[in-house]
Amino acid sequence: MEMDSPTHHHFGVAAAAAPPPTSTTTAAASLVEEATAAGDSPDYNTTPRGLSSAKVSETLRLVQSHVLEIRVEAAKEIRRLTKTSQRYRRYFSGAVRPLVQMLSYESVEANESALLALLNLAVKDETNKISIIDAGALDPIIGFLQSDNPTLQEHATASLLTLSASSVNKPIISDAGIIPLLVEILRDGCMQAKVDAVMALYNLSTHPGNLSLILHAEPIPYMVDLLKFCKKSSKTAEKCTALIESLVTFEECRIALTSEEGGVLAVVEVLESGSPQSREHALGALLTMCQSDRCKYREPILKEGAIPGLLELTVQGSPKSQSKAQTLLRLLRDSPYPRSELQPDTLENIVSTLISQIDGEDQCGKAKQMLSEMVQVSMEQSLRHLQQRALVYTPTDLPVNKCASEVSSK
Q1: What are the residue boundaries of the U-box domain, all occurrences included (predicted)?
Q2: Most CB contacts within 10 A, which of 121, 134, 155, 377?
Q3: Average pLDDT over residues 348-355
Q4: Sign of the alpha-carbon dihedral angle for 315, 382, 371, 298
């Protein structure tokens, strides 16, 4: 997957057009048999090979059949064939409209098979993503989000995650009022639906104007809950923290985060043990908070033990993270300005000042240990840098001691 209720209409067909039940079963079975004979076992998640254009055309014809059971089987076949094959996603782009039609049938099996087929068609295919929305998929998807059927709800959320990866679709999806529904899923859905919902919200957040819509739906308590329970190095934590970093540019979000029990702590835990990208987002969120109102947010950040994670980033983070971490450390001490010329504004002095203000022996001890390790690593890095410079600038055809004597004699 990418990192991407309206009344259902009755499926009505003329009785004379429907073949006998045995024909339905035979047609559906023969379709699977043809694919299997070509080396495409439906039980394996491998890219299908050897499917002729005639069979592709036959599948496209069956998905438009007047017999519901045949359409369902064809949808399942399209889902299988497009699961891992970008090539077949192109071949079956003509199935988008009939599959979208199936989303409105009064058959849960038809809804589910069509939704899953559309989901696979949309993965890593911008054209199909746009076509699915253009064909009218949003209305039934909204219905599934509000459905009491948890399976349909989960599949609908997953489809929105993929569809929202398209820049063309983002404003259409948000204008349809889906953002509050995604926040409801984030609150009440199953774990997988919650994960997909927060990632879909992140996708939508990159469109101008959507951040305020997301904030208005009050997602922070549910995002904090998700952060508490997910693995801090996961993609879920990364997207969740990235969304928080964007939202904390609003005072409403900063207030919500500090008011939520364990809100700041959840961000600090990502700062300490998240993936490199997650740690950068957590750092950015905390820095934005402190820069917006240092007097208001300095204490909550210090209280949750942010210092050790910041110290580690000053040494082991990316150049951007190192700079941001040092800036935040300066903001977190009593005064963000140098005390005097006798106490230069070095990182060690900044941290020493901070350590003296930390409450609790555990936090203080951990911060002191981190400072000691930070100084040690910094010294080792400086020594390696000097050694590398010596290798670069020392002529290879001259002994080192001769160079030294020549310099000293001048």
Answers
A1: 69-335
A2: 121
A3: 54
A4: negative
